[in-house]
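ERR on first pass: missing label on line 2. Operator R.T. fixed the label and resubmitted. Corrected input:
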Amino acid sequence: MDNIIIIAVAALGGLGLVAAIVLYFIASKFKVIEDPKIDLVEESLPSANCGGCGYPGCRAFAEATVKQAKDERHLEGLNCPVGGNDVMQTVGKILGLEVEQQAPLIAVVRCNGSKANSPAKINYEGATSCTFAHALYAGEGGCPHGCLGLGDCVVVCEFDAIHMNDELGLPIVNDKCTACNACVEACPRDIIELRKKGPKGRRVFVSCINEEKGGIAKKNCEVACIGCSKCVKVCPHDAITMDNFLAYIDFEKCKLCRDCVEVCPTNAIHEVNFKPRKPKVPKEEKPKPKEASVVETIAEAAPSKENKEAPKEN
Amino acid sequence: MIGTVKTFSLGGVHPEENKLSANAPIEKIPVPKQAFIPMGQNLGTPSKPVVSKGDLVKVGQLIAEASGFISTNIHSPVSGKVLKIDDIVDASGYKRPGIIINVDGDEWDESIDLSDDIKEDIELDGKEIIEKIKEKGLVGMGGATFPTYVKMMPPPGKVAEYLLINGVECEPYLTSDHRLMLEKGKEILIGTRILMKALNVNKAIIGIEINKLDAINHLNELAKKYEGIKIQPLKVQYPQGGEKQLIKAALNREVPSGKLPIEVGCVVQNVGTAFAVYEAVQKNKPLIDRVVTVTGKGVKKPSNFLVRIGTPLQDMIDAVEGFPETTGKIINGGPMMGKALISLDVPVVKGSSGILLMEEGESKRKPESPCIRCSKCTYVCPQGLEPFLLSKASKLAKFDMAEKEKVMDCIECGSCQYTCPASIPLLDYLRLGKTMVGANIRNRNKK
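pass 2 clean. output:
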């Protein structure tokens, strides 16, 4: 009995030993020499594998980073949008390179054609796919540029950052957005854009991409950009351009003065995360004592929640 | 005796025929007050306007010319003054470039023969016929609107052996081709002879389903006089009007995947196209009008109208005594392949074959439920595809898989969706798959 066990153990042990020796030599012969920095860089990345950097996964991005650092000694053009500046700084430290600070971006839905603003004229029944509906027809509200509300952007988001609001019929982006670009690519109408998050999350943008003439655009949607050019004239920073009856605010030039928001006749320009505006003091009441005015402002400002909630972003 | 009745072998469904307007003779509809003529009336590139605002045009005058190989000329269907060259809302709600003409009287271009005499002798030779077809802006009248002259020029190395004339009209409700065969039978046969001469073939087959026995008998009688034309009766089976299905039914030949009918020596043209060819070649008349069926269960007077291109659909609805209150959907085309319209201000185009006013009850889709793997969609697919698999692949954005499973061979007949007991919008997803795979293939070819 004992004998059998000993033989079995010896045989298996011997076999294991032989296999180990063979494997050792094979492993050392076919060893893949890899820069250990790739592993270090990969560890510092968020492992979301979202593809937002333009590479298929974090490992590929790490390899590309290490290669570019070695060949060109800089990290320009490489950015992990999910990790943001912190991660890129860590990557820079590992590779011994300076990394420029980049302003964080966020996805912005440039359509406010909610069910109230652009009422449905027809009922759609069919596949829940924006790409399909876009190829089929203009949309329930009739705007050929507006959001179709079928949620292709919601399906592709891996960060739980964009959700369909059933009341509005529009997608809403929350703070979890990492600017990975997936929703921008999924939207068949190019409504979603990556814009600068802005200081304290404050940003101003035109919430419409309709390039039709004012009258036609307004017919389908109450809050369409009608191309009146008032915002272009009022902008002190030359940040607004008008093309095909559509205003566009360049977020690099915009200084967030909000003059355009005030003049827009259709409320197509949105401001996000700003404090409620001080109510305009009529000219006759100007000589009032200063303190009283301030108190009044605060008292009025406190309950004015609508102003904060009006823009469809958080 | 009508001879052996044939059909295609794979799949197919048999929806309710509902040919309500089969006995309504073709009526002429008055010329509209304003004509809206979209520039994209053919498959391929849209045409380019050659008139400008304020120009006076006559009926039949060239107003837009072809802008590429797969493109066609457009002629004015009315006489009057060009109001503007602007965007027109099309059947899908998008704006497309077009020409709007204010109608004034009805003055025809002098070169068009307006007499009722039937001209039998074909004077032009093959090349001249194709040139004429191209010049007069002819497209396939079955609905796909592929420029006719392109079909008439087989690529080098390929020879046409048969000309198939498609008088199947397998779509339920529609009767425009049926009426045309009954009333313009002689013209269609002469048109067929013209097409045969241009293609240099001596065998032509006109395929007609046996629910149109009167048309089969009528054409059989007339065809005795014309050499080489055979009338082929076909069993009633949807989608026999698809060109690949018609070739299979009439000749038992199968068009290989991704190939055109010319691969098996066939050219298929619609009966409407044959009639338009007759008018273009013998009468010098461009494609400016067509027969359109206006029908529906609630419609008081289901009719077939000969309308000018550019007539707003509203005019035709008025001609059938208004649209019933019970209408749930207005469909451009037949119930199987047509698309729902979003307004009645859209004009008749070269490819319009019918307007269907569907009742509230029959138009609504049933709520979708999960696939029960009954494989009915696979049984009925006339192309031998697996719709359940393709739709799933498209839904999950696996377009490479959809391509491998031959989504591009789908003819969008809708048999799968019609038969699905779970009411899954299979065709919607197949169309999505086709759009995306088509775009992928184009991108790949560009590289």
